[in-house]
Protein backbone atom coordinates (compact mmCIF):
# COMPACT_ATOMS: atom_id res chain seq x y z
CA UNK A 1 0.00 0.00 0.00
CA UNK A 2 1.45 3.37 -1.03
CA UNK A 3 1.81 6.13 1.54
CA UNK A 4 -0.69 8.90 0.79
CA UNK A 5 -0.96 10.71 4.13
CA UNK A 6 1.68 11.17 6.85
CA UNK A 7 1.12 12.31 10.42
CA UNK A 8 4.15 14.18 11.74
CA UNK A 9 4.59 13.41 15.43
CA UNK A 10 6.65 16.51 16.17
CA UNK A 11 6.66 20.30 16.15
CA UNK A 12 8.68 23.31 15.05
CA UNK A 13 11.43 23.27 12.46
CA UNK A 14 11.53 19.53 11.83
CA UNK A 15 7.75 19.29 11.36
CA UNK A 16 7.96 22.05 8.73
CA UNK A 17 10.94 20.29 7.09
CA UNK A 18 9.06 16.97 6.81
CA UNK A 19 6.00 18.74 5.40
CA UNK A 20 8.12 20.30 2.66
CA UNK A 21 9.32 16.85 1.54
CA UNK A 22 5.78 15.46 1.69
CA UNK A 23 4.43 18.34 -0.39
CA UNK A 24 7.07 17.75 -3.07
CA UNK A 25 6.15 14.04 -3.13
CA UNK A 26 2.42 14.81 -3.38
CA UNK A 27 1.68 13.33 0.07
CA UNK A 28 -0.92 14.86 2.41
CA UNK A 29 0.17 15.83 5.93
CA UNK A 30 -1.36 15.84 9.41
CA UNK A 31 0.06 18.08 12.12
CA UNK A 32 -0.32 17.40 15.81
CA UNK A 33 0.02 20.26 18.25
CA UNK A 34 -0.26 21.21 21.90
CA UNK A 35 -2.46 24.08 23.06
CA UNK A 36 0.73 26.14 23.36
CA UNK A 37 1.51 25.53 19.67
CA UNK A 38 -1.86 26.39 18.12
CA UNK A 39 -0.26 29.30 16.18
CA UNK A 40 2.89 27.41 15.16
CA UNK A 41 3.87 27.35 11.49
CA UNK A 42 3.63 23.57 11.16
CA UNK A 43 -0.05 23.80 12.13
CA UNK A 44 -0.70 26.42 9.45
CA UNK A 45 1.10 24.45 6.71
CA UNK A 46 -0.48 21.02 7.27
CA UNK A 47 -3.47 19.68 5.35
CA UNK A 48 -5.02 18.71 8.69
CA UNK A 49 -4.15 19.61 12.28
CA UNK A 50 -5.18 17.90 15.51
CA UNK A 51 -4.69 19.20 19.05
CA UNK A 52 -3.29 16.38 21.20
CA UNK A 53 -3.08 17.97 24.63
CA UNK A 54 -1.81 20.79 26.86
CA UNK A 55 1.61 22.42 26.71
CA UNK A 56 3.76 19.95 28.70
CA UNK A 57 5.41 17.45 26.34
CA UNK A 58 4.41 14.52 28.55
CA UNK A 59 0.76 15.38 27.94
CA UNK A 60 1.07 16.14 24.21
CA UNK A 61 4.11 15.32 22.08
CA UNK A 62 4.98 12.31 24.24
CA UNK A 63 1.36 11.16 24.55
CA UNK A 64 1.45 8.04 22.39
CA UNK A 65 -2.25 7.30 22.80
CA UNK A 66 -3.28 10.78 21.67
CA UNK A 67 -0.94 10.68 18.67
CA UNK A 68 -2.08 7.21 17.63
CA UNK A 69 -5.73 8.27 17.94
CA UNK A 70 -5.04 11.34 15.78
CA UNK A 71 -3.42 9.14 13.11
CA UNK A 72 -6.38 6.75 13.02
CA UNK A 73 -8.96 9.59 13.08
CA UNK A 74 -7.38 11.33 10.10
CA UNK A 75 -6.72 8.21 8.04
CA UNK A 76 -2.95 8.60 8.02
CA UNK A 77 -1.00 5.75 6.39
CA UNK A 78 2.26 6.49 8.18
CA UNK A 79 3.87 8.45 11.02
CA UNK A 80 7.11 10.43 10.77
CA UNK A 81 8.65 11.10 14.21
CA UNK A 82 11.16 13.81 13.28
CA UNK A 83 13.91 13.85 15.92
CA UNK A 84 13.65 13.98 19.70
CA UNK A 85 10.33 13.22 21.43
CA UNK A 86 9.22 9.71 20.30
CA UNK A 87 11.68 9.24 17.43
CA UNK A 88 13.57 6.39 19.17
CA UNK A 89 10.76 5.03 21.34
CA UNK A 90 10.47 1.34 20.46
CA UNK A 91 7.17 0.93 22.31
CA UNK A 92 5.59 3.71 20.23
CA UNK A 93 6.89 2.15 17.02
CA UNK A 94 5.51 -1.22 18.08
CA UNK A 95 2.12 0.43 18.62
CA UNK A 96 2.25 1.87 15.10
CA UNK A 97 3.21 -1.51 13.66
CA UNK A 98 0.41 -3.25 15.57
CA UNK A 99 -2.16 -0.84 14.08
CA UNK A 100 -0.97 -1.57 10.55
CA UNK A 101 0.53 1.86 9.90
CA UNK A 102 4.03 2.51 8.62
CA UNK A 103 6.67 4.08 10.81
CA UNK A 104 9.08 6.25 8.84
CA UNK A 105 12.18 4.92 10.51
CA UNK A 106 13.65 1.53 11.43
CA UNK A 107 11.67 -1.30 13.02
CA UNK A 108 10.91 -1.40 16.76
CA UNK A 109 13.24 -4.39 17.00
CA UNK A 110 16.20 -2.45 15.59
CA UNK A 111 15.47 0.62 17.69
CA UNK A 112 15.53 -1.56 20.82
CA UNK A 113 18.72 -3.26 19.74
CA UNK A 114 20.64 -0.06 18.99
CA UNK A 115 18.97 2.10 21.67
CA UNK A 116 20.42 0.03 24.49
CA UNK A 117 24.03 1.26 24.63
CA UNK A 118 25.33 -2.08 25.91
CA UNK A 119 23.51 -4.06 23.21
CA UNK A 120 24.60 -1.51 20.59
CA UNK A 121 28.25 -1.88 21.59
CA UNK A 122 28.04 -5.66 21.42
CA UNK A 123 26.38 -5.37 18.00
CA UNK A 124 29.11 -2.99 16.84
CA UNK A 125 31.79 -5.45 17.91
CA UNK A 126 29.99 -8.29 16.10
CA UNK A 127 29.95 -6.41 12.78
CA UNK A 128 33.52 -5.17 12.99
CA UNK A 129 33.07 -1.56 14.14
CA UNK A 130 35.98 -0.41 16.36
CA UNK A 131 34.93 0.35 19.94
CA UNK A 132 36.41 2.14 22.94
CA UNK A 133 38.15 -0.27 25.34
CA UNK A 134 35.81 -1.06 28.21
CA UNK A 135 33.24 -3.48 29.56
CA UNK A 136 31.77 -6.01 27.13
CA UNK A 137 28.36 -5.55 28.73
CA UNK A 138 26.74 -4.10 31.83
CA UNK A 139 28.83 -3.46 34.95
CA UNK A 140 26.90 -4.82 37.93
CA UNK A 141 28.86 -3.70 40.99
CA UNK A 142 31.38 -1.20 42.33
CA UNK A 143 33.91 -4.02 42.77
CA UNK A 144 33.53 -5.09 39.15
CA UNK A 145 33.92 -1.46 38.08
CA UNK A 146 37.13 -1.11 40.09
CA UNK A 147 38.64 -4.31 38.67
CA UNK A 148 37.84 -3.26 35.10
CA UNK A 149 39.21 0.28 35.60
CA UNK A 150 42.46 -1.19 36.85
CA UNK A 151 42.76 -3.19 33.61
CA UNK A 152 41.95 -0.40 31.13
CA UNK A 153 43.50 2.48 33.07
CA UNK A 154 42.21 5.84 34.27
CA UNK A 155 40.46 8.05 33.35
CA UNK A 156 37.34 6.01 32.63
CA UNK A 157 33.71 6.98 32.11
CA UNK A 158 30.57 5.29 33.44
CA UNK A 159 27.54 5.61 31.18
CA UNK A 160 23.83 4.80 31.36
CA UNK A 161 22.95 1.94 28.99
CA UNK A 162 19.67 3.61 28.02
CA UNK A 163 21.16 7.09 28.12
CA UNK A 164 21.06 10.17 25.96
CA UNK A 165 21.56 13.92 26.20
CA UNK A 166 24.54 13.59 28.52
CA UNK A 167 22.52 12.02 31.36
CA UNK A 168 23.91 9.23 33.53
CA UNK A 169 27.51 9.94 32.51
CA UNK A 170 30.34 10.31 35.04
CA UNK A 171 34.06 10.62 34.45
CA UNK A 172 36.25 8.81 36.98
CA UNK A 173 39.87 9.93 37.36
CA UNK A 174 40.98 7.66 40.19
CA UNK A 175 39.94 4.69 42.30
CA UNK A 176 38.90 7.05 45.11
CA UNK A 177 36.16 8.52 42.88
CA UNK A 178 34.81 5.19 41.62
CA UNK A 179 32.13 4.34 44.17
CA UNK A 180 30.46 7.78 44.17
CA UNK A 181 30.52 7.97 40.35
CA UNK A 182 29.13 4.44 39.93
CA UNK A 183 26.26 5.07 42.36
CA UNK A 184 25.52 8.47 40.79
CA UNK A 185 25.34 7.07 37.24
CA UNK A 186 23.01 4.26 38.30
CA UNK A 187 20.70 6.60 40.20
CA UNK A 188 20.53 9.11 37.34
CA UNK A 189 20.01 6.31 34.81
CA UNK A 190 17.11 4.95 36.83
CA UNK A 191 15.62 8.41 37.33
CA UNK A 192 15.77 9.57 33.70
CA UNK A 193 15.47 6.31 31.76
CA UNK A 194 13.81 3.90 34.23
CA UNK A 195 16.82 1.63 33.72
CA UNK A 196 19.77 1.60 36.18
CA UNK A 197 22.04 -0.41 33.87
CA UNK A 198 25.47 1.16 33.31
CA UNK A 199 28.64 0.24 31.46
CA UNK A 200 32.23 1.51 31.45
CA UNK A 201 34.64 2.78 28.82
CA UNK A 202 38.12 4.25 28.65
CA UNK A 203 37.75 8.05 28.73
CA UNK A 204 39.23 9.66 25.63
CA UNK A 205 40.70 12.98 26.79
CA UNK A 206 40.50 15.16 23.67
CA UNK A 207 38.69 13.51 20.74
CA UNK A 208 36.66 14.83 17.85
CA UNK A 209 33.02 13.83 17.43
CA UNK A 210 32.66 12.33 13.96
CA UNK A 211 29.44 10.77 12.71
CA UNK A 212 28.55 8.83 9.57
CA UNK A 213 25.16 9.23 7.92
CA UNK A 214 23.83 5.86 6.74
CA UNK A 215 20.77 4.84 4.78
CA UNK A 216 19.44 1.33 4.25
CA UNK A 217 16.39 -0.23 2.63
CA UNK A 218 14.27 -3.34 3.19
CA UNK A 219 16.07 -5.14 0.35
CA UNK A 220 19.49 -5.32 2.02
CA UNK A 221 21.03 -2.28 0.31
CA UNK A 222 22.95 0.31 2.32
CA UNK A 223 25.05 3.41 1.71
CA UNK A 224 27.15 5.71 3.88
CA UNK A 225 26.69 9.38 3.00
CA UNK A 226 29.84 11.06 4.22
CA UNK A 227 31.25 12.09 7.57
CA UNK A 228 30.12 15.02 9.70
CA UNK A 229 32.29 16.83 12.26
CA UNK A 230 30.09 17.73 15.23
CA UNK A 231 32.84 18.61 17.71
CA UNK A 232 31.74 22.18 18.43
CA UNK A 233 29.46 21.41 21.35
CA UNK A 234 28.56 22.58 24.83
CA UNK A 235 27.42 20.14 27.54
CA UNK A 236 27.11 17.40 24.90
CA UNK A 237 24.82 19.65 22.82
CA UNK A 238 26.03 20.37 19.28
CA UNK A 239 26.18 23.99 18.13
CA UNK A 240 27.94 23.87 14.75
CA UNK A 241 28.19 20.86 12.43
CA UNK A 242 29.95 20.41 9.12
CA UNK A 243 30.27 17.95 6.25
CA UNK A 244 32.57 16.42 5.18
CA UNK A 245 34.75 16.20 8.27
CA UNK A 246 37.84 18.13 7.13
CA UNK A 247 40.23 16.38 9.53
CA UNK A 248 39.91 13.05 7.72
CA UNK A 249 42.28 12.16 4.92
CA UNK A 250 40.70 10.63 1.78
CA UNK A 251 42.04 7.21 2.80
CA UNK A 252 40.70 7.40 6.36
CA UNK A 253 37.34 8.72 5.15
CA UNK A 254 37.01 5.93 2.61
CA UNK A 255 37.84 3.32 5.28
CA UNK A 256 35.33 4.50 7.88
CA UNK A 257 32.58 4.94 5.28
CA UNK A 258 33.20 1.39 4.14
CA UNK A 259 33.01 0.11 7.73
CA UNK A 260 29.76 2.01 8.36
CA UNK A 261 28.18 0.92 5.07
CA UNK A 262 28.98 -2.75 5.62
CA UNK A 263 27.80 -2.64 9.24
CA UNK A 264 24.48 -1.06 8.20
CA UNK A 265 23.92 -3.82 5.67
CA UNK A 266 24.95 -6.60 8.08
CA UNK A 267 22.49 -5.61 10.81
CA UNK A 268 19.71 -5.28 8.23
CA UNK A 269 19.13 -1.63 8.98
CA UNK A 270 16.36 0.05 7.01
CA UNK A 271 15.83 3.85 6.82
CA UNK A 272 18.08 6.75 7.89
CA UNK A 273 20.49 6.42 10.80
CA UNK A 274 23.75 7.80 12.13
CA UNK A 275 26.74 5.92 13.50
CA UNK A 276 28.62 8.17 15.92
CA UNK A 277 32.31 7.90 16.69
CA UNK A 278 34.96 9.52 18.86
CA UNK A 279 38.11 10.12 16.79
CA UNK A 280 41.48 10.54 18.48
CA UNK A 281 45.07 10.02 17.33
CA UNK A 282 43.92 8.65 13.98
CA UNK A 283 41.64 6.01 15.51
CA UNK A 284 37.84 5.70 15.43
CA UNK A 285 35.85 4.42 18.41
CA UNK A 286 32.14 3.59 18.21
CA UNK A 287 29.99 5.71 20.52
CA UNK A 288 26.37 4.95 19.57
CA UNK A 289 23.91 4.64 16.71
CA UNK A 290 21.05 7.11 16.42
CA UNK A 291 18.14 5.33 14.77
CA UNK A 292 16.52 8.49 13.40
CA UNK A 293 17.05 11.63 11.39
CA UNK A 294 19.60 14.01 12.92
CA UNK A 295 19.19 17.74 13.49
CA UNK A 296 22.28 18.24 11.31
CA UNK A 297 21.06 16.17 8.34
CA UNK A 298 20.96 19.24 6.00
CA UNK A 299 24.77 19.48 5.74
CA UNK A 300 24.82 15.94 4.32
CA UNK A 301 21.98 16.79 1.94
CA UNK A 302 23.85 19.82 0.61
CA UNK A 303 27.14 18.00 0.02
CA UNK A 304 25.69 14.75 -1.36
CA UNK A 305 22.63 16.07 -3.21
CA UNK A 306 20.25 13.68 -1.44
CA UNK A 307 16.95 14.66 0.23
CA UNK A 308 17.13 12.42 3.30
CA UNK A 309 13.50 12.94 4.33
CA UNK A 310 12.26 11.92 0.88
CA UNK A 311 14.56 8.91 1.04
CA UNK A 312 13.13 7.98 4.44
CA UNK A 313 9.61 8.05 3.03
CA UNK A 314 10.53 6.06 -0.08
CA UNK A 315 12.31 3.40 1.98
CA UNK A 316 9.35 3.15 4.37
CA UNK A 317 7.19 2.66 1.30
CA UNK A 318 9.22 -0.44 0.42
CA UNK A 319 11.24 1.11 -2.41
CA UNK A 320 14.90 0.34 -3.12
CA UNK A 321 17.55 3.02 -2.65
CA UNK A 322 18.24 3.13 -6.39
CA UNK A 323 21.98 3.75 -6.01
CA UNK A 324 25.03 2.06 -4.52
CA UNK A 325 28.03 3.27 -2.52
CA UNK A 326 29.96 3.70 -5.77
CA UNK A 327 27.38 6.25 -6.91
CA UNK A 328 27.77 8.42 -3.80
CA UNK A 329 29.88 11.50 -4.58
CA UNK A 330 30.70 14.48 -2.38
CA UNK A 331 30.45 18.02 -3.72
CA UNK A 332 32.08 20.80 -1.73
CA UNK A 333 31.52 21.47 1.97
CA UNK A 334 28.60 22.53 4.16
CA UNK A 335 28.23 24.10 7.60
CA UNK A 336 25.18 24.31 9.86
CA UNK A 337 24.70 26.83 12.67
CA UNK A 338 21.99 26.00 15.20
CA UNK A 339 20.19 29.22 16.04
CA UNK A 340 18.78 29.15 19.56
CA UNK A 341 16.46 31.55 21.39
CA UNK A 342 18.83 32.19 24.28
CA UNK A 343 21.26 34.67 25.75
CA UNK A 344 24.50 34.10 23.77
CA UNK A 345 26.66 34.41 26.90
CA UNK A 346 24.62 32.83 29.70
CA UNK A 347 22.66 30.37 27.49
CA UNK A 348 19.48 31.17 29.42
CA UNK A 349 16.48 30.49 27.10
CA UNK A 350 14.74 33.65 25.87
CA UNK A 351 11.16 33.06 24.74
CA UNK A 352 8.99 35.90 23.46
CA UNK A 353 7.48 37.71 20.49
CA UNK A 354 9.42 37.74 17.20
CA UNK A 355 8.77 41.21 15.81
CA UNK A 356 10.85 40.80 12.65
CA UNK A 357 12.36 37.69 11.03
CA UNK A 358 14.74 38.38 8.13
CA UNK A 359 16.28 35.45 6.26
CA UNK A 360 19.41 35.74 4.05
CA UNK A 361 19.25 34.36 0.52
CA UNK A 362 21.54 33.51 -2.36
CA UNK A 363 23.35 30.50 -3.88
CA UNK A 364 24.32 27.96 -1.25
CA UNK A 365 22.32 29.55 1.59
CA UNK A 366 19.45 27.70 3.28
CA UNK A 367 17.46 28.46 6.43
CA UNK A 368 15.24 25.80 8.02
CA UNK A 369 12.89 27.39 10.55
CA UNK A 370 9.35 27.72 11.84
CA UNK A 371 9.53 31.42 12.69
CA UNK A 372 7.47 34.21 11.16
CA UNK A 373 6.84 37.86 11.99
CA UNK A 374 4.51 38.03 14.97
CA UNK A 375 5.16 34.49 16.21
CA UNK A 376 5.58 34.07 19.94
CA UNK A 377 8.36 31.61 20.79
CA UNK A 378 7.07 29.44 23.66
CA UNK A 379 9.11 28.85 26.81
CA UNK A 380 8.02 25.21 27.05
CA UNK A 381 10.18 23.47 24.45
CA UNK A 382 13.72 23.23 23.07
CA UNK A 383 15.28 26.63 22.39
CA UNK A 384 16.37 25.90 18.80
CA UNK A 385 14.37 28.16 16.46
CA UNK A 386 16.27 27.89 13.17
CA UNK A 387 19.18 26.31 11.35
CA UNK A 388 21.40 28.27 8.99
CA UNK A 389 22.98 25.94 6.42
CA UNK A 390 25.53 27.05 3.82
CA UNK A 391 27.15 25.10 0.98
CA UNK A 392 30.47 26.15 -0.54
CA UNK A 393 33.01 24.82 -3.02
CA UNK A 394 35.27 23.96 -0.06
CA UNK A 395 35.40 24.52 3.71
CA UNK A 396 36.95 28.00 3.45
CA UNK A 397 34.21 29.07 1.03
CA UNK A 398 31.52 27.62 3.32
CA UNK A 399 32.91 29.53 6.33
CA UNK A 400 32.96 32.76 4.30
CA UNK A 401 29.35 32.23 3.18
CA UNK A 402 28.23 31.39 6.71
CA UNK A 403 29.71 34.63 8.08
CA UNK A 404 27.96 36.73 5.44
CA UNK A 405 24.69 34.83 5.88
CA UNK A 406 24.78 35.36 9.67
CA UNK A 407 25.15 39.09 9.04
CA UNK A 408 21.91 38.93 7.02
CA UNK A 409 19.97 36.80 9.52
CA UNK A 410 17.83 38.84 11.91
CA UNK A 411 15.52 37.69 14.68
CA UNK A 412 14.21 40.80 16.38
CA UNK A 413 12.29 40.80 19.64
CA UNK A 414 14.21 38.01 21.38
CA UNK A 415 17.82 37.20 22.17
CA UNK A 416 19.59 34.55 20.04
CA UNK A 417 23.02 32.94 19.90
CA UNK A 418 23.84 34.53 16.51
CA UNK A 419 26.67 36.60 18.08
CA UNK A 420 28.26 33.39 19.38
CA UNK A 421 28.20 31.81 15.92
CA UNK A 422 29.84 34.90 14.42
CA UNK A 423 32.59 34.79 17.03
CA UNK A 424 33.25 31.08 16.49
CA UNK A 425 33.44 31.40 12.70
CA UNK A 426 35.98 34.23 13.05
CA UNK A 427 38.20 32.33 15.49
CA UNK A 428 41.55 31.24 13.95
CA UNK A 429 41.48 27.81 15.63
CA UNK A 430 38.03 27.07 14.23
CA UNK A 431 39.07 28.26 10.77
CA UNK A 432 42.12 25.98 10.92
CA UNK A 433 40.01 23.04 12.13
CA UNK A 434 41.90 22.84 15.43
CA UNK A 435 38.98 21.98 17.66
CA UNK A 436 37.77 18.95 19.58
CA UNK A 437 34.74 18.29 21.79
CA UNK A 438 36.50 20.23 24.59
CA UNK A 439 37.40 23.28 22.48
CA UNK A 440 34.24 25.34 22.97
CA UNK A 441 34.43 25.29 26.77
CA UNK A 442 37.80 27.05 26.54
CA UNK A 443 36.56 29.45 23.87
CA UNK A 444 33.58 30.48 26.01
CA UNK A 445 35.86 31.63 28.84
CA UNK A 446 37.02 34.54 26.68
CA UNK A 447 33.89 35.05 24.54
CA UNK A 448 32.46 38.53 25.03
CA UNK A 449 35.33 39.77 27.19
Brief write-up:
The protein has helices at residues 12-25, 41-45, 64-74, 90-98, 108-115, 117-126, 142-152, 175-193, 250-266, 297-304, 308-316, 395-408, 418-426, 428-431, 439-444, and strands at 5-8, 28-34, 48-53, 78-80, 102-103, 156-160, 170-172, 198-202, 208-216, 222-234, 237-243, 271-280, 283-290, 333-340, 352-353, 356-358, 365-369, 376-377, 384-392, 410-412. It is α+β, with helices and mostly antiparallel strands. It folds into 3 domains: 5-104, Rossmann fold; 133-202, 2-Layer Sandwich (Dna Ligase, domain 1); 208-444, 2-Layer Sandwich (D-amino Acid Aminotransferase, Chain A, domain 1).
Characterization of this structure:
The chain has 449 residues and is an alpha+beta fold. It folds into three domains: 5-104, 3-Layer(aba) Sandwich (Rossmann fold), CATH 3.40.50; 133-202, Dna Ligase, domain 1, CATH 3.30.1490.20; 208-444, 2-Layer Sandwich (D-amino Acid Aminotransferase, Chain A, domain 1), CATH 3.30.470. It has helices at 12-25, 41-45, 64-74, 90-98, 108-115, 117-126, 142-152, 175-193, 250-266, 297-304, 308-316, 395-408, 418-426, 428-431, 439-444; strands at residues 5-8, 28-34, 48-53, 78-80, 102-103, 156-160, 170-172, 198-202, 208-216, 222-234, 237-243, 271-280, 283-290, 333-340, 352-353, 356-358, 365-369, 376-377, 384-392, 410-412. The strands form five sheets. The protein has an eight-stranded antiparallel beta sheet. Strand 12 (271-280) and strand 13 form a beta hairpin. Helix 12 (395-408) runs antiparallel to helix 13 (418-426). The chain is globular.
Amino acid sequence: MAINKILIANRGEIAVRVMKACRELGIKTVAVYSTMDKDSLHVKLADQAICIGPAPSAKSYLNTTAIMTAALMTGADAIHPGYGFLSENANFVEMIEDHGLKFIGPSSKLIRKMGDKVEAKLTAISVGIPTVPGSKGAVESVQEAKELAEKIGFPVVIKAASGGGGRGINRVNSMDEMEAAFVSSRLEAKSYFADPTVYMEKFLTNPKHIEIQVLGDEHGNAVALGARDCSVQRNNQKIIEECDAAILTPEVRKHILNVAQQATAKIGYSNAGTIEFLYENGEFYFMEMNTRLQVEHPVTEEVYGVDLVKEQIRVANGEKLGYTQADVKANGAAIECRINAEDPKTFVPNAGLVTDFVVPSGPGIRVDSFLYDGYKVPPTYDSMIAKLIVHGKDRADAISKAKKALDGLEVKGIKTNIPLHKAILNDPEFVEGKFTINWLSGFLKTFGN
